[in-house]
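Hi V.,

Quick status before I head out on leave. The structure for the redesign project is tokenized and pasted below; the design run finished overnight.
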């Protein structure tokens, strides 16, 4: 006789949130459903309503979790820098590297931007994420430069992933040198 599935699955909520992000990337925000997410997470459809009030709360929590994860990676990379020059090198690594500037991450980010544009209460997720990024940058740069760098990182990451001929590390370093003076 086989055992029945465990009722207490401590990873279920996290699997649902990860499956939500995966479905965003695979189908886009306008084509995800509870059913698709439940199937991808390997949970019953009833688990969706047990853990989340609806698709809005599910998306909000998934996006928040993603933004915090990205902020943690960002902070971790910049905390390794000992000075401004090393911080600039870390910024180039974030733009050109394979951990932060991935196609998957960018797809989730732009789904968040589009969704938050139609759901202004979710702009808080983006605003908090920007604030955390800028605070980390302020370890090495003044607040205005930190804000410019935050926008630069975001924009250049998109360019790096989508350009037919992305800028070289050297070109990005020269651009950063102009920004930071």
């Amino acid at each position: 006789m086989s055992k029945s599935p465990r009722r207490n699955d401590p990873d279920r909520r996290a699997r649902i949130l990860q499956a939500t992000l995966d479905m965003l990337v695979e189908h886009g925000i306008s084509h995800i459903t509870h059913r698709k997410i439940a199937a991808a997470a390997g949970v019953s459809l009833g688990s969706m309503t047990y853990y989340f009030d609806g698709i809005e709360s599910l998306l909000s929590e998934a996006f928040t979790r993603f933004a915090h994860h990205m902020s943690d990676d960002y902070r971790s990379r910049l905390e390794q820098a000992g000075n401004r020059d090393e911080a600039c090198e870390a910024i180039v690594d974030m733009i050109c590297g394979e951990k932060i500037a991935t196609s998957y991450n960018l797809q989730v980010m732009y789904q968040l931007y589009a969704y938050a544009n139609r759901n202004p209460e979710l702009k808080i997720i983006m605003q908090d994420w920007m604030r955390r990024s800028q605070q980390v940058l302020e370890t090495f740069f003044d607040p205005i430069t930190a804000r410019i760098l935050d926008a630069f990182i975001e924009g250049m990451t998109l360019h790096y992933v989508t350009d037919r001929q992305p800028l070289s590390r050297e070109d990005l370093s020269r651009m950063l040198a102009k920004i930071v003076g």
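Above is the designed sequence. The chain has nine helices and no strands.

G. will cover questions while I'm gone.

Best,
W.
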